[in-house]
Structures are given as C-alpha cells and as structure tokens.
Amino acid sequence: MSSDLDPLLKRLSLANTRRVWRDLVRRAETEEWSYEQLLQTIFSEEIAHRRGTRLMRAVRAAELPFLRTVEEFDFSYQSTLRLTTIGSLLSPDFVTEGNSVILFGKTGRGKTHLAISLAYRAMQNGFDALFANCAELIDDLSCASREGRLREALARYVKPHVLVVDEVGYLAYGDDAANVLFHVVNERHIKKRAMVFTTNKHPKRWGPVLHDDDLAEAIVDRILDRGRLLKLDGPSIRTKHLAEDNALDDDQDETEALRVSGKPGSQFPEPAPARSAFPSSRIALPFPRAARTRAERDATRERPGRGEARTGREPSHPNPARRQNRGTGRGVEGPTPSCDGGRRGRPETDRSIAAEREARAAMRPPRPDARALS
C-alpha cells in the first residue's frame, strides 16, 4: 500500500505527510482512532508544517536585523505603555485595515524591539513584512530616481503587507529625502498597507530632518490618518545593567567632601604613587673605617736609602754620566727623582698617609667636655 500512496502524496506536494503518515497509522491502530480522527491529525500536521516553513521564509525575506517577540519586551521600564495598549497592533486587523503606528522616544527605549515584534506577529498571522532603515531606504530611492527607475524601486517597499521604517531622523539625508519618502507613504496609504515607524524626534520636527516642512507634514498626516503615536519613555534598556544609582551616590559624596574641605578637585585625577614600606636611608656603621696595615703602606711606598734620606744627597744612580746631566735635562730618561725619595705627588702615597692619619684619630681617646668639668 505504501508504494501506491507515496507517489500520490508527492503529486499533491504533501512532503510532510509522506514522512509522518506511517507513524500516524500505527498510532491510530494502537489507540483505536476513528478514520475521521486519523485524517484530522494528518491534515493538522501538514498545516502546522507548512505554517512553520512559510514563517521561516517570511522572516528571511523581511530582512530583520534580529528577531524579537512581544513576550520578550520588558514593559516594566515604561511608565504609560502596557501590553494592553498595543493589543490592537498585534491582531490581524492591524494589517487588514491598513493601520500605522509611530514609536517615538529617546535612544535605548526599545523602539526597534517593539517594531520588530509587531512585524513578527504579523508574519505569524500570515502576512509579509519588510524591515528597512530610513537612511538606506532614502538612499536607495534617491539613486533610483536619478537613474529613472523610481517606479520600479518603489515596488519593493509598497508590496509587503507591513513596512517597518527604522530610525527616522537619526542621520542626515539628501535634499530629496522628503520627496522619495512621500512616494512610499502615499502609495501605501492608498493601498491600505500597514506601516511602523521608529524615531527619536517628534513628528512635528521631521520638517528640518527631511528638508521640506510641507512634505514632512503631508507624510505625518497620511501616517496618522489610520495610525497612532506611541511614546516610549523610562530609562535606557541598553544600560540597565549599570549601577547608575551607586555611581551617582559616589559622585555626590566626593563633591560634598570637596565642598566641605574647600579644596578644588583635580580635573584629571591620577592615583598617587605607592610609598615603599622600607624607606631608603643610609645606615651609619657602628665602627670607623679600618686603617690600612703597615705592610700595605710599605708596599705602596718607595723608601729611599738610609744614608741618602739622612744627608739629603741624591739617590745613587747606576750611570754616573747620566747623573751629571741631571740639571741640564740632557740625556735624562724618565722623571727626575725628587728630594723626598719620590713620595711627593704620588696618589697612592697620599692615600696611605691620609689612611694613617684616620687610624691615629680613631685610636685617640675622646676629649672630655669642658662644660662637664666646670
């Protein structure tokens, strides 16, 4: 029987039924289903599969930057906006009647999230949607207008059941921004196509943004003809993870401390360098520097001959001829020895003498204080 049924299901393009009908038949036999219950289950499975497949295709065609649902939107951050307020926007009548909505508020209030949620709900209800950034939409249509194919480019933004135009007024547009945007809004208004706009500027201020006050007023008039203006307030959802209250309290405490002390705070405060636990200081030795020994002094000193030191005669020289020419400077090689045996002017000799004096001063007993004796 399966060989005869599969070609028929393929001919009818019932791909999901071809995969599940055997399991459903075995289940019907086990649970003793009726023929009507079996057929109802088979058709329900096929419809659910086709709905899921169509929704996936619609989401890809909508070019959503990310997917969000209404259930994920946190209404606790809004003071006036509630789920019941946007209940009519979630029904199929919002699309079939060609209604529109402008979501107005500061940045980070969830306008894009809510707009994508409305488009996704419309796709769940069986409609098509398209998400477009306002700057990209205007640039695309402006380029098409200059090339003479504006009518062809408009079809992409007029055909979907729901059009989401995000970030109106965020960026600067060309001089023909109001002209091309008016074509989109007017065509969709005539064909009763739903529109969703997000903006951080009130619709009354769209004139300077679009470079034409009259066309901007006409655009807003057509949007709100069958539409609503919803304001989103409260804190920014993007920065809700920051402890802003604690940061403000810390700033107030610091400001109060500066005010009481009277010292102006630094414009660019920098952390003070950490002080060392061991301050650098010179440690005085408990004993004087040791004097050089007599052997060290004798090693660095050239002592003259015994007879020459007492009589003051010149030291003996191995060459008498060279000694005779000492006064004229002829025939003399090297420095002439002095009368003190060559000790004067030598740095090692001076250091040895200074070390000997220090040693004597260290060995000398301290003098008594005259005031103590009196």
From TrEMBL:
It holds the Pfam family IstB_IS21. Residues 243-374 are annotated as: Disordered. Signal peptide: none annotated. Residues 246-255 have a biased composition (Acidic residues). One of its GO terms (biological process) is DNA replication. GO terms for molecular function: ATP binding. Residues 97-230 form the AAA+ ATPase domain. It comes from the Bacteria. Residues 293-316, 341-374 have a biased composition (Basic and acidic residues). InterPro entries: AAA+_ATPase, IstB, IstB_ATP-bd, P-loop_NTPase. Transmembrane segments: none annotated. Belongs to the IS21/IS1162 putative ATP-binding protein family. NCBIfam families: IS21_help_AAA. This is Mobile element protein.
